[in-house]
């Protein structure tokens, strides 16, 4: 298993779920030992679990994951930077979409740590082609305190992405 892919998946799991345990137990139906072995590159996931990993990403995001993996195969030194490269490319593409005025912003508030009431927002930048099921989507996670900044204008979101990912 490619370590760059493992890094990208684990990063997304940490962003999307309260913790890794919730994900590997309920989504992948794996034991703790299997999950740890997979993260080390010593365990191949069953087909069902591999499909669940893909569902962590939108179709467009999965395409970007594949491009980053290709880059890490071509330039092995980039393997350690896979998550950074993915986030940088996602932000670059999203900023282009937002600058074109063709993309829309969707904001979803999430509670990540119930004990501490840690809130974050998921910002989806959606390129809609007016054909059902064919929208391109890029997702970003920000602290909930940035909600007003993000919701106020596309320009503010572009600046926040620049500040966060570059």
Short summary:
This protein is α+β, with helices and mostly antiparallel strands and 166 residues long. Helix content is 55%, strand content 17%.
Characterization of this structure:
There is one protein chain. By secondary structure, this protein is α+β, with helices and mostly antiparallel strands. It is built from 8 helices and 3 strands; from the N terminus they run H-H-H-H-H-H-E-E-E-H-H. It has a 3-stranded antiparallel sheet. Helix 5 (59-74) packs across helix 6 (82-99) and helix 6 runs antiparallel to helix 8. The longest helix has 18 residues, at 82-99. It starts with a helix and ends with a helix. The model has no long low-confidence stretch (mean pLDDT 88).
What brief labels describe this structure?
8 helices; alpha+beta; 17% strand; 166 residues; 3-stranded antiparallel sheet
